[in-house]
Amino acid sequence: MLGANDGLVSTASLIVGVAAAATGRSEIMIAGLAALVAGAMSMAAGEYVSVSSQADIEQADLARERKELEETPEAEEAELAGIYRQRGLDADTARIVAQQMMAKDALAAHARDELGISEFTTARPIQAAFASAGAFAAGAAAPLVLAGLVAEGMIIPVVTVASVVLLTVLGCLGAKAGGAPMLRAAIRVTFWGAFAMALTAGVGRLVGTAI
Is there a domain that residue 198 lies in? Predict the structure, then answer.
């Protein structure tokens, strides 16, 4: 949702700003397409670097945990039992569970219960990069397609209104997925998206008039 919002707001704002400068459709489409490609690549690169750093940290934590298990297995078992006691088990049950978990896969048990790392939460840089780029491109495609379909004189109102509606929908969907109040989220996303488009249109109008 965040990536789609970014793509929609940034590309719609750029299209409206360029259109407000009284340029032709070809310039508007080139600017919009450039925004889509550059934004998607920027999102992918940023997400890849960020998640790669997280993956490096996870690997370092696992290496340290593996070494501790080799050198002080008793202490690691006691540590795991202490974690289970904090979660509500009595001392005897926690000790038995820790022993059984250590016997099955000690590193996996400590990774999951001590470090919070599992196969479902482990960092995946490539997957994250593609997901971010795809989400941004999907959001950016809507105003770009509209700018190419409508009459040249209608680009600003159509792209603006459609983008505001889409932002409202995305805000509601994001809030629903997260269990947050939909109205507040929709208003917040729509307001800032509309503000960005209005500001960019104003800048485009000033630049177009000056030139």
Answer: yes
